[in-house]
Amino acid sequence: MSKTPRTDTRSLTNRTRKAERAAQQAAEKNETVIIHGAVPPRDILIQFITDNPDRASKREIAKAFGLKGEARVELKEALRALEDDGLVTKNRKSLSRPGALPPVTLLDITTRDKDGELIGRPAEWPEELGAAPAVAIRQSSADRAKGKAPVGGLGDRVLAKIFPSKDRAGPAYTARIIKVIDKRRGALLGVYREMAGGTGGRLMPIERRGEEMVIEADDVGDARDGDLVEVEVGRVSSRLGLARAKVLSVIGSVASEKAISMIAIHAQGIPHIFPPSVLDEAEAAKPASMAHREDWRHLPLVTIDPHDAKDHDDAVHAEPDPSPDNPGGVIVTVAIADVSYYVRAKSALDSEALKRGNSVYFPDRVVPMLPERISNDLCSLREGVDRPALAVRMVFSHEGRKASHTFHRIMMKSAAKLSYQQAQAAIDGKPDDKAGPLLEPILKPLWAAYAILKTGRDRRQPLELDMPERKIVLKPDGTVDRVFVPERLDAHKLIEEMMIQANVAAAETLEKKRQPLIYRIHDTPTLAKQEVLREFLATIGFSLAKGGNLRSNSFNGILAKALDTPHQIIVNEMVLRSQSQAIYSPENIGHFGLNLMKYAHFTSPIRRYADLIVHRALVGTLGLGEGGITPAEEASLADIAAEISTFERRAMAAERDTINRLIAHHLATRIGDEFDGQVSGVTKSGLFISLPQFGADGFIPVSTLGRDYFVYDEAHQALTGDKTGLGYQLGDSVSVKLVEAVPLAGALRFEILSEGKKMPTGIRSFHKATRRKTPGTRPPRGRR
């Protein structure tokens, strides 16, 4: 009886030793081998994950190494250890190396190598990871000749499939183009700087990796010193060794907001001009008929939006449920503009909408996903005008539990267009002439329904981050007037919760019908990110439970504890940083932040392509008439989800860059002023400082912190003086002076005014131990 366990153990040990010997031999030969039957050493696992991003799930790894039974348990522990040590990260079910490019990435083709092959770099890359990796674009000449593969060129932005490179002497990755997103015509943006004597000028780049160019006097056109211009790049000037450029158009003064948003649009490659075929198709569209529609024009649906909204894609209504089986219950109706009726698959409108993925919002403009004829006219739920819509009727119990829901394709007529402030003021007892008559029949039932939905939300306990969104108000000349945080009203929360419930209903209906769709998913925080957050919280006396089964409400206790304390802003920021990125996917893993198992975007098809796909899926699977999803679309959902997830990040980056540049312009006139800030990031190079009142971030180089030698402690997110023991830590409140603003880069540089605090004994002891044990951490001679 005792021989079997010993035999199993001996067999497992032999397999492990065999794997280790083979790994050693492979390492000597600079090779990676797959050993069947035993969990390979850590370096082999890491190499496999690096080389096989498409096969980096636990199941695929076990299959590749032939692991069964107890060996699979060992593999699970080994992978968890790699994740805990920060050597791999987990995204949904797949593992990857930290900083590795995802399997599908948006690339900008920037140059050629010595052999003439195209080289691209990721369009998005965190600065803290250093230089963005180069990617060799592989294009088969045979495939190009036969038209089998998209062809990219210099300046193009492409969506590409990424592969680890086997050529150790070249770029770390190779790529195959899936789709050309933006075919550029060789034009670049830059700032024209005039040379003395009227001899032309120079083009100053707006991107860090850009190059200065010469503009001869004959090629200046109407440009003046300081103008943002679009230029055509010519040959290299033999006299100066710089490329020549010719001004094609003048966008405007670089100090204006128009120019700043155009920088972001250009830098991120956002399509912003509709082709004639798309505009023609939009203009030719006719109002929808009553075919396949229910007539709901009698139902007093209302739109509640920002006061300056130009399009209205959602309307709401609520009433008590008359059913005796649901005492105290309510019926909530959400109607959404029927974009799928007008934008059909494979049409010019559809192709352009997918190319954009979503609308992009700047302080001075909107780059819409659809032309105004569709978004602001035919699909806008205007007050008192017949409009087609897709509606969901949801029944809730008095406890906020959904009892049932049904979808309907309707014709509606909005009873009123209200702003959030109008609706809230009416509920608060200060109705205006428009909202007053709607108070009893429409608004009070809506607020009563919201109270019931809020009961359900409180029970669900989604992640309750408090991250105030700052709004920029511009002057007539396009410069910043002021920055403020709009008040968060119950009217906002009411609409938000009703939209969430409509999104849940859409996902549930399609899943029940076994209809393929695109979910909105949000994975749990990785163990590595949890550990970073846990270590930070420990420095301010907070704790986060260990374990891989955290739920969204696990963070709410921490956020509540930080409320109304000096740590409130930074704790919310750090909890946000610990979260995974929400994305679109045809595979459902639930939404961690909302604490929902089924969730899809349904409520904004005017501005998000994902919602349009969900509308088409509902129309098709429920037999609601024309405009349903096609088999070709169903087969392409994975690619579509990857594209629109990338485009969403592109839009966020453009919006963020514009805000940063605007704030830098705004503060450029305040050099030398002092501000109250907070340490929002710590690196060995220095401190990142946020100014909460502006929503701005800047940097303090470590070399300017003082005469002491500062030691970086990653675990405690601190920089501590070697002699004094004084230092700065993530979350510290500090006083700073603005010493430099670079508007084009959206960059600010500060000087520290606050003296560092005495660091806790544990941190100082950690520094001493680190200096004794780690080579290269002793202070340089003369600075000890």
TrEMBL record:
InterPro entries attached to this UniProt entry: CSD2 (IPR040476), NA-bd_OB-fold (IPR012340), RNase_II/R (IPR001900), RNase_II/R_CS (IPR022966), RNase_II/RNase_R (IPR004476), RNase_R (IPR011805), RNR_Ribonuclease (IPR050180), S1_domain (IPR003029)
UniProt GO BP: mRNA catabolic process
The EC number(s) this enzyme carries: 3.1.13.1
Cellular compartment(s): Cytoplasm
Residue ranges the record marks as coiled coil: none
Example of a GO MF term: RNA binding
Catalytic activity from the UniProt record: Exonucleolytic cleavage in the 3'- to 5'-direction to yield nucleoside 5'-phosphates
Basic residues: compositionally biased ranges: 765-784
Ranges of residues in domain S1 motif: 672-740
Record field: compositional bias (Basic and acidic residues): 307-320
One Pfam family recorded for the sequence: CSD2
CDD domains found in the cross-reference section: S1_RNase_R
Superkingdom to which the source organism belongs: Bacteria
Top EC group: hydrolase
Keywords: Cytoplasm, Exonuclease, Hydrolase, Nuclease, RNA-binding
Cellular component, GO annotation: cytosol
Predominant localisation class: cytoplasm
Region (Disordered): 1-29, 307-327, 763-784
Family to which this protein belongs: Belongs to the RNR ribonuclease family. RNase R subfamily.
Role noted for this protein: 3'-5' exoribonuclease that releases 5'-nucleoside monophosphates and is involved in maturation of structured RNAs.
Record protein name field: Ribonuclease R
The encoding gene: rnr
